[in-house]
Amino acid sequence: MKKLLVFLRENNIETEIHKSSFLTGARDHRKIMVIDGEIAFTGGMNIGEHYQNEWHDQQTLIMGPAVAALQDTFISQWKHCGGTIDSMAGL
Question: b/e for 14-33, b at 16 or more Cβ within 10 A?
Fold first, then answer.
């Protein structure tokens, strides 16, 4: 995970890590990727050998008006983790 974060940050991709606790029930396990406001993916997008060999994640392509709801959810969580909207050109 640390190598991935270093790579992203070295390539000017803003990243935020939300350090929630398993004990408080505040853990957010959502996986949302909004491409351009009209196309999005949600679902399993884990990285690691365990998820490639032993567990089968599924991504779902979302198109049309439903993408706006996913984008709103992402932006809300992004702000909660300390991200800024200024860093999200075009949103």
Answer: eeeeeeeeeeeeeeeeeebe
Does the global pTM surpass 0.70?
A: no
Tokens standing for 22?
């398993």
Q: What is the dihedral of CA 40, 70, 53, 13, to 10 degrees?
A: 70
Hey, what are 63's tokens?
């198109």
Q: Note the pLDDT of residue 20.
A: 60
C-alpha angle 29-69-48 in degrees, rounded to nearest 5: 30
Dmax (CA) of the chain: 39
9: Cβ contacts below 8 Å, ≥ 6 apart:
15
Give kind and range of the element (H or E) at residue 62: strand 59-63
CB 30 within 8 A of CB 40: no
CA angle 17, 84, 57 (to 5 degrees): 45
The separation between CA 24 and the C-alpha centre of its own chain, rounded to angstroms, equals 21
